[in-house]
Amino acid sequence: MDKPVHKLFLLDAMALIYRAHFAFIKAPRITSKGLNTSAVFGFTNTLLEVLQKEKPTHLGVAFDTSAPTFRHVQFEAYKAQRQEQPEDITVAIPLVKRLLKAMCIPILELDGYEADDVIGTIAKEASREGFEVFMMTPDKDYGQLVEEHVYMYKPAFLGNSAEKLGVPEILAKWQIKRIDQVIDMLGLMGDAVDNIPGIPGVGEKTAQKLIEQYDTIENLITHADEIKGKLGEKIRENFDKAILSKQLATIDCQVPVPFDAEDLTMCGPNVDLVVELFDELEFKTLKQRVLGISATGQLSPVIARPGAPAKEKKGQLDLFGNPTEEVGKQPAIISEGIADDDAPEQAYEDLKIPTTRRKIDNTFHRYHTVDTPELMKSLAYYLGLQDAFCFDTETTSLDTIDAELVGLSFSYLAGEAFYIPVPADREKALEIVEHFRAVFENENIEKIGQNIKYDLLVLKNYGIEVHGKMSDTMLAHYLLEPDKRHGMDILAASYLNYEPVSITTLIGKKGVKQGTMRDVAIPEITQYAGEDADITFQLNEIFSKELPKVNASKLFYQVEMPLLKVLASMESTGVRLDINALREMSGVLEIDLRQTESEIYEAAGQSFNISSPKQLGEVLFEKMKLIEKPKKTKTGQYATGEDILSDLEANHVIARKILDYRELQKLKSTYVDALPLLVNRGTGRIHTSYNQAVAATGRLSSTNPNLQNIPIRTIRGREIRKAFVPDTDDFQILSADYSQIELRIMAAFSGDTSMTEAFNQGRDIHATTASKVFGVPLEEVTSDMRRKSKMVNFGIIYGISAFGLSQRLGIPRGEASEIIRAYFEEFPAVKGYMDRIVNNAREKEFVETILGRRRYLPDINSRNQTNRGYAERNAINAPIQGSAADMIKVAMINIHDWMAAEKLKSRMILQVHDELVFDAHRDEIDLLKERVDELMRNAIPMAVRMETGIGVGANWLEAH
DNA sequence: GCGACACC
DNA sequence: GGTGTCGC
Fold first, then answer.
1. CATH number of the domain encompassing residue A148
2. Which domain of life, per UniProt (predicted)?
3. Over pLDDT 70: what percentage of chain A?
4. Out of A287, A830, A860, A893, which residue is the most buried by the measure of CB atoms under 10 Å away?
């Protein structure tokens, strides 16, 4: 029994249109209105002919798109010769598409791919599924795609009848042994039509001889010196052109087009539309013919699906049987005539979670190595045409200051990326980077990246200042899901169902044995780096649509993105550290530490490791039995925290000494000894790294080292700040901090009149609070009352609980409750605000800051009291802490912009949540004081007056 | 991973 | 309430 034969015809629209146009060039068909219809006419004839004669069961017509492709990129060097597309053809294309839509014939096109790529991909897949495939084109390049069940179909032309070419015919035609040699032939001969250069002077005959003898271009090149005479010379001179030509001639059969036989059927022509078009084009005989065809039903039973409903696109499978993810996120793949014009766009969230995770091996991609000056120029040219591109740097180190560039990757189209290897030699590296300077510095091209600040800093070390709008996927996700993690691997998994190549498979596990990116072979690193850029590009497509949905676009593009550049600049500037001062301190601390240590041993009657909480607990509570019922931590150890030891101070001298020991130890190990090691050898300065995407409230954090927790509370601790010094004698340290920023925001949000008044009149807020809470006149407030009120004020911001306050103040729970009760009685608006925001959060399950930065609090409706309480405190604290963060971020951007515009010598060097620190040139100090104060106070207008305190000094301590 | 402690 | 680092 014969299986019914499925005959698939794939038409190369562009080639057929061109051929038709030139066929009639001497006697073009012109309508009465002057429209040249040669191309449409020729195409239509061919189409109808194939429908009638071949009766395909399935068909599709492929078009090129105007989006640039890599082949264009490679082409660029040769493109000069290419002629402009004739206007008649430009006009013909939409008419042909209209015809196809009217006939309900599937149109195949995909941005970034040419018709031959699309046809090649579908042809191979269809043949695997049992189709007989005919690729209808006059273009000889298609020979390379022919295989069992896949044929070239050359349409009838100028008296020649149509030709079907299978494998034997192609081999005979080219006089080659294998089909894959078609591209070697094309690579050698070149192809004038497609602007493939080939080797000059090599035509079909020579190419045949060479391929017969050497089999492939690659092998020919390795034996090029064996070839004598002019030919050998030509080959040796132009081998790169031959390789490039071979690449150019190769049709890509890995296009992300899902093959679905049902997509390649006709849904039934709309005769009215066809007739209307033919009337317009004045195709009289064709009109008769098409009416005849449809009237006799010759057309519809063959390939039509009469009355078949428009197929819904969801749940489509890709070539590998995996659901095509994020329908509507990728470029439209198949526009199936009219039927598909209104295919539903599906939101990401609605998709079922597929069970198989996509990886590089089972996902379409084109990652190219770009390693010649010509290709780099071409790529740069094409990057220059984009509105936006994604880029990523591969380096030898995570530390931006001494990271050496290993490579650059770019992507501006989902699924495609380019990797440029950069050599270790700095001169050569600079030469390569130079190709991309113009696109990086182009103000009008948006730059997309994952943690782009890192890449900006790396490029800065190669003299490139990246300009233009930024879009950082890490920060976008930070605004979308501030509590989640924002690593690329996690984002790829949750938004693209994709698992990127892990870095460990390339350079090994973390540790001394871990290699660097420099050691990875170029093909592997191309895949890895290309994937990074590609995935980031795709994530950005999703996030840029998600951000407006949560009203975060403004915050993203006007705060976080500009801030990223400010932070990059601060990090790269760094802070000067007085290492000698720290060395001296280290010596003193060491002596005191040894002294304290021996005193502790003496008091304890034994020596032990004081730094081990476990040993310390055993000594204090088992041997010395300082407390009857010692507290334990959740892991069962004795608790020896500061609060507990403080309580013991009265009992035994050892407690005080242990606290002293701890302080000295902390200062020495965390600051005095650690900081000098982090001074960069090159700059002689210390370069912290600001993380813009960790604190769920919107604050920054600082690492390597953390310069946001340099001691200030104790006398000995704050000495460390003396080591933070200005650049030269011409500079001083200037520090500007917001006074009570969070309490002021609380006052503004709650609208509490007495609190607002206190601020607006410049009164001592803690003393004022004390006078109200304890019911005494302001002048009778004691220092203890003020201290307690200060704690209450802090507690309010943190979403107070009586328990928390009693802990902080070291007072009984009852007393704490009483203070809170009194507080809320005096500041009823504050209580009202707290209740309001919690209720609001219960309903929406998120809270937001003044700039709309959200924090999601699903636990606010939890039945678990602990979790719910935590969420409630967050509901109160996050908008306040976060709004303060918003405010200083805006201030930083404005200050940075102003300083740049004024071309000041001074630099902003540190941010510590409510404080900005500057390395201030002496000539600019007065100006800075005035403008920084103004820009900080007015960053975001509020109902409550903002105030700053500004100080200047020879070091950070003196500046306070 | 935890406890302790530095900062806002 | 939010962080990061140290030493065990």
1. 3.40.50.1010
2. Bacteria
3. 90
4. A860
Torsion of CA A115, A118, A119, A124, to 10 degrees: 160
Q: Residue A802's domain is classified under what CATH number?
A: 1.10.150.20
CATH assignment of the domain containing A378: 3.30.420.10
What is the SS3 assignment for A282? coil
Is the CB atom of residue A912 positioned under 7 angstroms from any atom of strand B?
Answer: yes
Per residue in A821-880, pLDDT (tens digit) is 999 999 999 999 999 999 999 999 999 999 999 999 999 999 988 889 899 999 999 999
Q: What is the pLDDT of residue A70?
A: 59
Whether residues A894 and A870 fall in one domain: no
Which is higher by pLDDT, A119 or A52? A119
CA of A641 and C1' of B8: distance in angstroms? 21
Whether residue A666 lies inside any domain: the answer is yes
pLDDT digits (tens, 9 = 90+) for A54-111: 888 899 999 988 776 655 555 454 444 445 678 888 888 989 999 998 888 899 988 7
Closest nucleotide to the alpha carbon of A632, via C1': B3
Q: Within this chain, do residues A860 and A915 fall inside the same structural domain, yes or no?
A: no
CA of A669 to C1' of B2 (A): 19
C chain positions with any atom within 7 Å of a protein CB = 1-8
Backbone angles phi, psi at A835, to 5 degrees: -65, -40
- Looking at residue A219, its pLDDT comes to 82
Same domain for A555 and A416: yes
DSSP A559: I
Output the pLDDT for position A510: 66
User: CB of residue A913 closer than 7 A to nucleic acid strand B?
Assistant: yes
pLDDT of residue A412: 94
Confidence bin at A299 (pLDDT 50/70/90): very low
Regarding whether A137 and A10 lie in a shared domain, the answer is yes
Residues A426 and A544 reside in one and the same domain:
yes
Q: Return d(Cα A571, Cα A703) in angstroms, integer.
A: 11
C-alpha angle A895-A708-A582 in degrees, rounded to nearest 5 = 110
Q: CATH number, domain at A895? A: 3.30.70.370
Asked if residue A915 and residue A874 are part of one domain, the reply reads no
Q: Which residue is nearest to nucleotide B3 (CA to C1')?
A: A613
Q: What is the mean pLDDT of chain A?
A: 86
Of the pLDDT bands very low, low, confident and very high (cuts 50, 70, 90), residue A659 is very high
Per-residue confidence at A354, pLDDT binned at 50, 70, 90? very low
Does residue A801 lie within 7 Å of nucleic acid chain C, judged by its CB?
Answer: no
Alpha helix ranges (H) inside A105-150: 115-128
- Only one residue has tokens 């290419």, namely A82
d(CA A696, CA A699): 7
In a domain, A448, yes or no: yes
Query: A209-235 pLDDT, tens per residue?
Result: 889 888 888 888 778 888 888 888 888
Q: Which domain holds residue A533?
A: 360-571
Nearest protein residue, CA measured to C1' of C7: A611
How far is A328 from A584, CA to CA, in rounded Å?
Answer: 64
Q: Which strand B nucleotides have any atom less than 7 A from protein CB atoms?
A: 2-8
Q: Smallest Cα–C1' distance to nucleotide B4: which residue has it?
A: A641
A 10 A CB-CB count for A282 gives 16
Q: How far is CA A185 from the centre of its chain?
A: 42
User: Do A376 and A460 share a domain, yes or no?
Assistant: yes
Query: Is there a single domain that holds both residue A830 and residue A891?
Result: no
Residue A511 pLDDT:
64
Does nucleic acid strand C have an atom less than 7 angstroms from the CB of A709? yes
